[in-house]
Amino acid sequence: MYHGGTNFGRTTGGPFISTSYDFDTPIDEYGIIRQPKWDHLKNVHKAIKLCEKALLATGPTITYLGPNIEAAVYNIGAVSAAFLANIAKTDAKVSFNGNSYHLPAWYVSTLPDCKSVVLNTAKINSASMISSFTTESLKEEVGSLDDSGSGWSWISEPIGISKAHSFSKFWLLEQINTTADRSDYLWYSSSIDLDAATETVLHIESLGHALHAFVNGKLAGSGTGNHEKVSVKVDIPITLVYGKNTIFT
Length: 249
Hints:
This protein has helices at residues 37-50, 52-57, 145-148, 175-179; strands spanning 6-7, 19-20, 61-66, 69-76, 79-86, 92-96, 99-103, 107-111, 119-120, 189-194, 198-206, 210-215, 218-224, 232-240, 243-248. By secondary structure, the chain is mainly beta. It has a five-stranded antiparallel beta sheet with strand order 3-4-5-8-9.
């Protein structure tokens, strides 16, 4: 695998499971180069490219230079290439075509002309690199991705239910069937008229993975489940005002 990836949303195979297929690939699931593997594999490809004519012209002749030491030779006329492989657990020194070669254990040396070693897979010529993440503050006045000067994109979503997609039910709904997988959100709306302002507690029990509660357009609280217990149960202190109060969850 050359480029890692992750399945998001409902394609992950279960609740709270992020199915990552990164496997330490040269390009990770975020599109970031992973060193030294990226450069090392690039050097392997360059070495194979130098052997291209011989590899495509004929098959290998396998000879043994010692216990668990193989030489795969591709030779047709003036075109030749060889791969010396030490599949033993210890390093070895071998003689091939009149020359002496040091072969580390469990590695392969590539000789495009059957003489010169252009690559030994045991030798890493690239520096290791550890990726790190940095935080970036959100600029409220930024109205588009182009204005932000950042490589990240974001969308400001309106709170609540639009008239075009609203409907009434007297019971809770199954989210995936209701949204038809077109949205990650299913909003519930309720309202209450009060003769006086009051403080109370908003109690919510949900089988959803996560929820956000907004009272009169402002975030009142949030809750999430986890892999062991996916349901959400929260008690959120809220302040209701005189007149009409709208609650979105």
